[in-house]
Write a structure and sequence with these properties.
This protein is an alpha+beta fold. The chain has one domain: Histidine kinase-like ATPase, C-terminal domain (Heat Shock Protein 90, 2-Layer Sandwich). The protein has 3 helices and 5 strands; from the N terminus they run βααββαββ. The protein has a 5-stranded antiparallel sheet with strand order 1-2-3-5-4, covered by helices on one side. The protein is globular and about 40 Å long. The two termini are about 15 Å apart. The relative contact order is 0.20.
Length: about 140
């Protein structure tokens, strides 16, 4: 169904503890929200993958393992676009390339989000205000 068939523009907000076991629950909630907005299947899967990658980055990199903080997901429909933000209050860490120029098995999350999103912005925290926010937009039509 096209954009005009979307039944609701009610935004989504999820606040969860940034732990690995939260990723699946967040993914389920985002999937249900996308389904209720009648986002076409393939585009919904791309958005879901991008959100999962962004949330996983927060879970794995924002906080020390013994002191997880919060990850906040906001999503909204704006015309023919889904806007999603994933935010944490942790510390930004620059991606580190694999040793010796090898292709690493990890560290591809932001590149995946970049490839799937129509527009991507990453806001790094400052010394006075920690946190990272990833804002991604996904057009629903060509």
């Amino acid at each position: 169904m096209g954009i005009t068939g979307m039944m609701s523009t009610v935004p989504l907000r999820i606040e969860a503890t940034a732990r690995a076991q939260a990723v699946a629950n967040i993914r389920s909630a985002v999937r249900a929200w996308l389904t209720s907005r009648e986002v076409p299947g393939e585009r919904a899967e791309e958005i879901l993958l991008a959100v999962s990658e962004a949330v996983t980055n927060s879970v794995e990199h924002a906080y020390p393992p013994d002191a997880p903080g919060v990850v906040i997901i906001d999503a909204e429909v704006a015309g023919g676009t889904i806007r999603v933000s994933v935010a944490d209050h942790g510390h930004w860490r620059e991606p580190v390339p694999a040793a010796g120029g090898k292709i690493g098995l990890r560290g591809r999350g932001l590149n995946i989000v970049r490839a799937l999103a129509t527009r991507l912005r990453i806001h790094h925290g400052t010394d006075g205000a920690h946190g990272t926010t990833i804002e991604a937009e996904f057009h629903l039509t060509d």
